[in-house]
Amino acid sequence: MTFLSYLISGISLGSIYAIIALGYTMVYGIAKMLNFAHGDVIMVGGYMSFMATTHFGWSPFSSVLFAMGVCTVLGILIEQLAYKPLRSAPSLAVLITAIGVSYFLQNAALLIWTPNPKSFSSVVPFDSLRLFDGQLIISGTTIVTIVACAIIIVTLNTIVNKTKIGKAMRAVSEDKDVAQLMGISVNKTISVTFAIGSALAAVAGVLLCSAYPILMPTTGAMPGIKAFTAAVFGGIGSIPGAFLGGILLGIIEILGKAYISTQLSDAIVFAVLIIILLVKPTGLLGKKVLVKV
Amino acid sequence: MLKVNSIHVFYGNIHAIKDVSFYVNEGEIVTLIGANGAGKSTILKTISGLIRPAVGTIEFLGESIVNLSPHKIVRKRLAHCPEGRRLFLQMSVKENLEMGAYTRDENDIEADMADVYQRFPILEERRNQLAASLSGGEQQMLAMGRAMMAKPSLLMLDEPSMGLAPILVEQIFDLIVELNEAGTTILLVEQNAQMALSIADRGYVLETGSIVTTGSCADLLNDERLKKAYLGG
Ligand SMILES: Nc1ncnc2c1ncn2[C@@H]1O[C@H](COP(=O)(O)OP(=O)(O)OP(=O)(O)O)[C@@H](O)[C@H]1O
Ligand SMILES: [Mg+2]
User: Fold this and answer.
1) pLDDT in tens, A175-210
2) Segments forming the whole domain that contains residue B117
3) Which of B116, B135, B151 is the last residue of a domain?
4) Which residues of B touch A170 (CB under 8 A)?
5) Looking at this predicted complex, what is its ipTM?
6) Residues B199-228 pLDDT 10s
7) Is B70 part of the contact surface with chain A (CB cutoff 8 Å)?
8) Are residues B132 and B121 located together in one domain of the fold?
9) How far is residue A147's CA from residue A42's CA, in Å, rounded to a whole number?
10) Among residues 127-186 of chain A, which lie with CB inside 8 Å of chain B?
11) pTM reported for the whole predicted model
């Protein structure tokens, strides 16, 4: 029973990683860049929800929508101001800019909200679920996190495979020049991708703070790196890969904490990543890069 | 319909296109022929907006298009079917055709898709397969189909016969003539000069970035120098 309860916590934490990893992987797939500021958008999402509930007295649900709205705008702004001017610059320049944006967001948060941690109260109003005569207790937050992740993955899959903008995203990801020749605006497609990724980051931020209720300017940094790891683990650029990578990473982390060592759990996570990448350099579901003839 | 005026194109400091001017009238098939590296593809990319010329103007239907981005140029019904097919290999056959019609209203494309399928039944059979799974010939059919889905008034084709079996080459050229008869103006880039000149109205011969000869196809086919260089005798 304890194993089952660890497994469920792992899936729940993994769901959060998966939601973040989706943003990383989509932006990478379409704009071919690693948006290292993605983790910090999570933190902004957390603060927005926190402000909406504690300062404006809004309901938890509207606070989530508010956080999503703000982060969507933030994501588009970051892309327009920081990355778009570098569209044809070397990827190292883009990477350094992304790290700069990350520091900028963290320091702006320090200025606005101070380094003192805020205690976040969960946005999930449901009670815990008690199973097997109370031997297995699953918190409302855990359930909502897993359900939210499932809804997001299904919705995203539908968008990418069935809608016109989703097909445009896949076209841009495969061949930017030809996508333009079809009449697709690459800039608009990249903007939409950042918007979706950042809205997801807001959701992840709220869920993360609901599960681990301490909110600081650096709150997004570590989950951001882990989710990036998850995206690489699953195969960067692949949506199912980000999902699978996120869930597995969450499970490995929690089981590692429970059965091996709390201190070493992060080391275990990264060790698994290194092993997987040695065996399969493209990640679990990554595609081989097609060689153009 | 299309007027290219003294364009110069550079790749870094390589002067790839030097003072090229030519025009295409409505209803014509015009071909641009030349050896490897002459600059044919560069000219098409410049017209469709993927590359900017350093100097020169390009007018389409009386409007300058030289500063427009490629996705806006397509909306003027000027389509470019690039060299080497460049399909979306991770998308299905049907999705590739839909991408061809990206600028159009989704409700209008059914009939055109049926037309493509009727012409290339194999594409209908494979409509849900990934483009990557098609053979080279089938991929070229799909590339042509995708270009047709744009319903362009001017269609630029970059070496549509490249690497194809003779029978397929014939089928593709028949299709080009049919599209032209149905009202599509064609700018055709080819290394297969004989074939291109046999269907075109006029031709331009390109050598290392400059146009060296131009004329009606009948004249070009009889040009002694050209015969030696491109027509195998
Ligand atoms: N991206 C590029 N960067 C640098 N030089 C280039 C680039 N693309 C083409 N070139 C050069 O420009 C010249 C013209 O190339 P282009 O591809 O237009 O020729 P082409 O006539 O289409 O040849 P082919 O028949 O082989 O397709 C060549 O010398 C080529 O090496
Ligand atoms: Mg070429």
Assistant:
1) 999 999 999 999 999 999 999 999 999 999 999 999
2) 89-151
3) B151
4) 88, 90-91
5) 0.92
6) 999 999 999 999 999 988 888 888 877 777
7) yes
8) yes
9) 19
10) 164, 167-168, 170-171, 174-175, 177-186
11) 0.90
